[in-house]
Amino acid sequence: MGPRVKRLTDALRPSLAHAAAVVKPRLARLTDAGRPGPGRSGPRPGRTWYFTASAATAGLALAVGAAAVAGPFDGAGQRTAERDRAVALTLARGADHDGAGAVADGPDAVPSAPPVLRGLGGAAEPVNSGKVPPSGIAGVLDPLLADSALGSGQAAAVVDVATGTRLYGAHAGQAFTPASTTKIATAVAALSALGPDHRLTTRTAFEPDTGELVLVGGGDPTLTAHKASGGWASLRTLAADTAAALKKRGVKKTKLSYDTTLYSGPALHPIGVNDNLSVVSALTADEGRTDGSSSGPVARVADPAAEAARSFAGFLKDAGVTTTPPGPSKATARAATLATVSSPPMSDVVERMLTNSDNDIAEALARQTALASGQPGSFAGGAKAIGARLTKLGLPMRGTSFHDGSGLNRDDRLTADLLTSLLATAADPSRPGLRPVLTGLPVGGFTGTLAERYADGGAAGLIRAKTGTLTGVNSLAGTVVTKDGRLLTFAFLASGTTDPQSAQSALDHTATTLAACGCG
């Protein structure tokens, strides 16, 4: 048993015992309901039953128990149960769900239960922003948020996902610089605009008139030149497939150019040259990183498109096709596509962005959102498109202002109300396409930017949250499972902080206390 799994086991043992006692009768009823009986068909070989939210309590207890033994995450660091549930929501449902009735020649449809999660976006009932219900939550959070480590200004909101009720609010409608929690908004906007199954494609095109080969960037920020692609689109594969297509045409030497015209406007973020973000280009391999890493700050190449094209030329040479030194160009409408490689689905790209707080992916997704919304693929176009998409979802946008997709721009403004509403909307069972916003959040004590946090506070595995840090700014927004089993969304924003480590610790302590208090 690994050290992190042991920490989680120790932290959850009391809760597991309580959960088992509460759930045991429900499990018995569910088991009895699932057994074949008079007038009831048993499950057939090769078929799977997807139970609805009525089994959530039993499933939670079983899932937590399994997590303590085997670890709750798959190889990419995400909860497999959450992924499966998102898939299940998109498949054929029981008779009560969509009126389709039972599947032909299949078992009877599993009966539906009343909804557990109330939709918070679009036409659904908005978050109740009235008086905070009488509870102990204010008495718990008020003194924690008054910690001097959290600087000169703080805002906070806590929402019960099941009811949509705001349980706590402190300056929740006041706009603050959000730092990287902006990526939650970018994720929701991108998934809304593009859909969770959308893929970003890089291709090669052959000009029939000039015999020129053009490497056309499709804006995939996850394209890799590494020998082991890790499941992401491979520049090496594209080169091998392109070389094979050229040889079929009898071409073993060609002029090579590259096309980055999908994006427009300034390529350099307003913060200037920075290890946290490459020049934003429609063509880049490994985010222009210079050390072989896949996340975190590191020096970047000056021109990622040119560097990617040079690597591509080298791979072509290895495959038996020589080229001229590559230069910028634009593929014409007459050019024939020779080969393509595509990113994993947008759901995976969004998860990687949130887990690693990946600024390069965030800026690419902002531009892709812009293009899907009829806006220019630029910083300004992305910012406008994100705001428009969230407005269309019916989210509380008053006071908000977007200037990029990553949150590196200090002029960005978000409210705690908006952040909790974004997360609650992603939990809405009627919007399964937004589920990656939750499954991509770093898990306290386990993954991403929270891998080394919450290890010793008893909240490992219970808190999933996006972090945010700029000079004088600290933020934390995510979900938490409380002591009494309630799922809450929360957002804490602090400005004027002078010690980032102390501010981070204060926010972590606040979230941990929220998990333990059972006072919602």
Summarize the structure in short:
The protein is α/β, with parallel strands linked by helices. Helix content is 35%, strand content 13%.
Structure in words:
This protein starts with a helix and ends with a helix. Helix 6 runs parallel beside helix 10, helix 6 packs across helix 12 and helix 10 packs across helix 11. It is elongated and about 75 Å long. Strands 3, 4, 5, 6, 7 and 8 form a six-stranded mixed β-sheet that branches. Strands 2-1-11-10-9 form a five-stranded antiparallel β-sheet, with helices on both faces. Helix content is 35%, strand content 13%. The relative contact order is 0.16. The N terminus is likely disordered. The chain is built from 14 helices and eleven strands. The longest helix has 32 residues. Strand 10 and strand 11 form a beta hairpin. The protein has 520 residues and is α/β, with parallel strands linked by helices.
- Beta content comes to 5-15%
DSSP summary, beta strand count: 11
pLDDT < 50 stretches: 3-134
**C-alpha end-to-end distance:** 34 Å
- Tell me the major beta sheet: 6 strands, mixed
Give the helix proportion (percent range).
25-40%
Tell me the Rg in angstroms. 25 Å
Number of continuous helical runs? 14
Rounded mean pLDDT score: 81
* Rough outline: elongated
Spell the H/E element sequence: HHHHHEEHEEHEHEEEHHHHHEEEH
Which structural category do the helix and sheet elements fall into? Answer: alpha/beta
